[in-house]
Amino acid sequence: MHEAPKKKMSKLAVWSVILGVLSFVFWLLTAIPGLIFGIVAACKIGQPTSGLRGKAAAIVGIVFCSLGLLPVGPAITAALVTPVVSQAMKKRPLLEVRGDYQTQLVKEKKSKAKADVPPEGGPFEIVKYSTELGDMLAYLAVGERDKAVKAAPAIIWLTGGFPTSSPGDYLWDEDVNWRNDQSARVFRNEGITMMFPLVRGTVAENPGVQECFYGEVEDVLAALEYLKAMDGIDPERIYLGGHSTGGTLALLVAAATGDFAGVLSLGPTDDHYGKDNAPYEWIEKEIDLRAPINYLDAIRSPTYVVEGSSGNTASLEAMKLANQNPLVTFVEIEGGSHFNIIHPVNTLYAKSIHADEVMTAEDIAGCCD
Q1: How far apart are alpha carbons 10 and 36 in whole angstroms?
Q2: Cα Rg of the chain (Å, integer)
Q3: 20 to 30 A Cα–Cα from 184, which one of 47, 135, 195, 306?
Q4: Domain limits of the chain?
Q5: Domain 94-365 sits in which CATH superfamily?
């Protein structure tokens, strides 16, 4: 008694399945030939003398390719691929995500006022730092303790309000409201060199116009390079901090570089400050490229995001829920406001910088007690 010859798997049926799967990505390019292969394979396999098997595979290929011919194909692909791509994009440095995209400005905002001149003999001097647009002004205060050592820490501080990082005599005025210390003077009081970069469009002397958290990122990165090259400053111990809109800009800068030893963001927003404050076209892409919540995973420096319980806690909670980055710590200070947390948190941070120690969330949460 002779055994029946073994049937061979239909190559057309196999290719139909392969092209059907690929049709979810390449759509018509593979769906049409895959559908033809599947139909031909099914017809041949149905012939008694074909010696072929694989009818189930041919049917699967036909079904996949049929779906690939419909809008559901790209939809399935988008559903599967978009979350993966989105997560990968979040982990890329901010400037890499932006690529060559040029922000679309619909308003030209530029201050006509010149920078306030600090008093002679005071802690501050005006310096120029180089940016892609040209030289910009900054206030620089060299810490007293820093002069005694070869390589000391420094911090770039970004003040709040609109425009972000604006000038003013509040930086050196001795009449201080400690419940709203926008000058963050505790850092220089602790002997830490401070730099307040005046970014594009904030003073008449600076080139460019205000872009509201876009080009300003590059300006702060340029200020970082200035400090790195400064005598007496340890380039490995340069910190970044800011309050309110300055805190928002600090998070975006932190998502663009890992060169800061640490970052402190007080009272930032997670998304935007509304259409009225936006000089850019009010479209999703422009907003997304300025929203810190989208780039938390790209931050590569130890970062603290802090707000008082009566402040903008909605943004704090939104970012905390979205965050998957162990380098970013979120702290809500019970009983604190958007403003009265500035001095106590900065005091704690300044001491940790000098001691070269790490702040804990518990330390921050209790610093206003």
Answers
A1: 14
A2: 29
A3: 135
A4: 8-91, 94-365
A5: Alpha/Beta hydrolase fold, catalytic domain (3.40.50.1820)
Please give the average per-residue pLDDT across 136-152, as a whole number: 78
Between CA 62 and CA 49 the distance in angstroms is: 23
Q: Where does residue 120 rank: exposed (0-12), middle (13-18), buried (19+ CB within 10 A)?
A: exposed
Q: What spatial distance separates the first Cα and last Cα of the chain, rounded to whole Å? A: 95
3-state secondary structure of 103: coil
* Count of other CB atoms within 10 angstroms of residue 82: 10
Instruction: Return the closest-CA partner of residue 131 out of 196, 194, 230, 199.
Output: 199
Burial 143-164 (b: 16+ CB within 10 A, else e): beebeeeeebbbbbbbbbeebb
Q: Is the separation of the CB atoms in 137 and 168 below 8 Å?
A: no
Largest Cα–Cα separation, the chain: 112
The pTM (predicted TM-score) of the whole model is 0.76
d(CA 37, CA 214): 52
Residue 265 has which token pair? 């963001």
Q: What is the pLDDT of residues 298-321, one digit of tens each?
A: 999 999 999 999 999 999 999 999
